[in-house]
Every structure is written in C-alpha cells, then in structure tokens.
Amino acid sequence: SHDIRLAVIPGDGIGSEVVAEGLKVLDAVGLKVESTTYDLGAARYHRTGETLPDATLAELREYDAILLGAVGDPSVPPGVLERELLLRLRFELDHYVNLRPVKLFPGVATPLGEARPEDVDMIVVREGTEGPYAGAGGVMRRGTPQEIATQESLNTAFGVERVVRYAFDRAAARPRKKLTLVHKTNVLTYAGDLWARIVDRVSAEYPEVTTDYCHVDAASMFFVTQPRRFDVVVTDNLFGDILTDLGAAIAGGIGLAASGNVNPARPGSQSWAPSMFEPVHGSAPDIAGQGKADPTATILSVAMMLDHLGLPKEAARIEQAVADDLVERRTAGAGRGTREIGHDITERVTG
Ligand code: NAD
Ligand code: IPM
Ligand code: MN
C-alpha cells in the first residue's frame, strides 16, 4: 500500500519542466508515492482532438491528489485547453477553494523595496467554481459591427457561503484573525450584495475574527502600498485570479507562487474528490523548453499538497528547504536553471 496515489498532469510549455522538479523533491521526503502521468494538453489535443476524455476524468477521481504543471499553448485557440481541461477539472472535482498564499520569504527581493516577511503574509481564498468562470453568456451577430458579447458572473448563495466559511475558518486559525472581503459592491451590486450579506451573516459565528471590506481596485493598490492590511482575503474567481498574480509579484515573483485547488470535503464523504495542486503561473511559452523556468512554485505546491493530505511534517520539510534555498539565492543563486534549483532543493530535503 502507498501513502499517496498521485495523478500527474504536466501539461504544456514549462509545465513538464517544473513538474519534474516537484516530483524529485516529493521523492526526497521518502513517502511511498505511486504516481501516474496523464498526457493531457496541447500535444494530445493536436493528436486526437481530445482535451479531457470522460473516462480519464473518471480515473482521475480515484487518486488522492493531482499535481498539475500548466495548460495553454499558442498553437491552440485561447480558452480551449483552459476551459475544457483546467477549468473542467476544477468544476467537476468541485475545487471551490482556490487557495493562494501570498507570503514573502526571508531574503527574497520584492518590488516593494522595504517590505519584510511580516509585511507580506496573507492567504487569498479565491472562489474556484463560479463567477465569470462559470461560462454563462453568449455572442450575437458575431463578426459584424453590431456584435454583442455577454459574459455573466454566476454567484450562488450556496457557492459563496461555503467558500466564505472556509475563509473564516482559516482566518480564525491565524494569529491576526482578520478576514477581508474583496469585491466591487459599488458597481457589481447584485453579486457584491450577496457576498457582503453572506460575509456579514457568517461573521456573527466568528466573533474572534475581525472582518473588513475592500473594493478590488483599492485592494490592488493596498497590495502594493500596504500589504500588511491583509491576512485572509476572500474574493470571487476573477478578482482572485488577478489579485494573485499581483500577490505573486509582491512576494518575489510568479516563479514562487503556489496554489491548491481544494475540495475541502472529508475523505470518504459523498462530495469528496481529489484536490489539485499547481503553480499560479501558466505555461510560459516565452521561456518553454529552455530550462529557465523557476520550479519553486511547483515545489511549494507539492508542500501544500502534503499538508492537505495530512502530512504536515513532510510539507514543513519541503517548505524549510525552499526557505533555505531562497535565503542563499540572494547571494549565490544567480544563473541557476530549472534543474539546478530543483536539484539544490532536493538535496536540502534529503539533508
Ligand atoms: P504565464 O504565467 O505563463 O507567464 C507570464 C510571464 O511570467 C512570462 O513572461 C513567463 O515567462 C513568466 N513566468 C511564468 N512562470 C515562470 C516561472 N516558473 N519561472 C520564470 N518565469 C515564469 O502567463 P501568460 O503568459 O499569461 O499565459 C501563458 C499561457 O499559460 C496561456 O495559454 C494561459 O492561458 C496559460 N495559463 C495557464 C495557467 C494554469 O495552467 N494554471 C495559469 C496561467 C496561465
Ligand atoms: C490561473 C490561470 C487560469 C485561471 C486560466 C489558465 C484558466 O490564470 O490558474 O490563475 O484564470 O484560473
Ligand atoms: Mn491566473
């Protein structure tokens, strides 16, 4: 028997490069891992026309977790792989929590200049199954001057409440116990009102958590000027997507930003499905195949995965190895490629 049965989807571009390093580091923690690699992404699409066959999806449901590199390729029209593969997995496996820590590690250079690790330490809880990502909308008179395109944001009381509750739980477990709803209630009055009322109602059950609200435009400014304002941020799918690339930038760059598409249900319960861990970044066609991509985000996503699977000690070993590597990077780190960084972190985990 194995500790972890893992499905691996390297995907496109730098996906396979960074996933290879993530798997090396995982191997170094000494767990019994049975991993199966799935050929999904642009190459498969060109070869067979398939993005995510139903039978493959059914198989993926049987794993403990999924590790994904990235999907999307310039040779495929935008949205095909993103919607039919990545978003379909998030929706079908009910990954309603898209967990994206924004954490500045000691020694890491940030565009904020003066910022210290205690200034940039938050978790963005991005809703993962609704919002504008749900795909509602359509187009009329396409290609004519009268073309009309609509793209609606789906927000259900059920979907908002469950992610808000998750965010309150996370906030209650952190020292600062602060939750900030980020939305655009001044313009998106229907959806914003739903989010605000639910946060307000649920907050009554968490008297120890300070609740705050910030419009998304102002939040973007405060991420840069006053990141200390934020502890746990809860927000909708699209705002969370945008804010977490910004979050990655303030915490040292997109090559360091980890994420988990989490289904928080109890293992064995009806609604359980494997969670999926992936770097925040994409397939980076501009540097793909050159061995330049930073695998650190994927390695930290592996640590998140272990934490999620109830293996916090192993997760902490990986995080510590990354933290140690990042301190050294400032001085000796320049010039290392994907494999060198992966190798160095693996060595540190092995000890
Ligand atoms: P991107 O994140 O792929 O790249 C943005 C910039 O960051 C590029 O300059 C890239 O070289 C750099 N970068 C990204 N990851 C890096 C790493 N690990 N190390 C060093 N530099 C890194 O975003 P994009 O260019 O907007 O999108 C490219 C493709 O990826 C698109 O098809 C998009 O749909 C897809 N995408 C997929 C995911 C995902 O699978 N989760 C996420 C984002 C984008
Ligand atoms: C991300 C990506 C995806 C998203 C795309 C590729 C569908 O940008 O994981 O952040 O928008 O969620
Ligand atoms: Mn994104």
From TrEMBL:
<dbReference type="InterPro" id="IPR019818">
    <property type="entry name" value="IsoCit/isopropylmalate_DH_CS"/>
</dbReference>
<dbReference type="GO" id="GO:0000287">
    <property type="term" value="F:magnesium ion binding"/>
</dbReference>
<protein>
    <submittedName>
        <fullName>3-isopropylmalate dehydrogenase</fullName>
    </submittedName>
</protein>
<keyword id="KW-0520">NAD</keyword>
<feature type="domain" description="Isopropylmalate dehydrogenase-like">
    <location>
        <begin position="5"/>
        <end position="345"/>
    </location>
</feature>
<dbReference type="GO" id="GO:0016616">
    <property type="term" value="F:oxidoreductase activity, acting on the CH-OH group of donors, NAD or NADP as acceptor"/>
</dbReference>
<dbReference type="GO" id="GO:0051287">
    <property type="term" value="F:NAD binding"/>
</dbReference>
<keyword id="KW-0464">Manganese</keyword>
<dbReference type="InterPro" id="IPR050501">
    <property type="entry name" value="ICDH/IPMDH"/>
</dbReference>
<dbReference type="Pfam" id="PF00180">
    <property type="entry name" value="Iso_dh"/>
</dbReference>
<keyword id="KW-0560">Oxidoreductase</keyword>
<keyword id="KW-0479">Metal-binding</keyword>
<dbReference type="InterPro" id="IPR024084">
    <property type="entry name" value="IsoPropMal-DH-like_dom"/>
</dbReference>
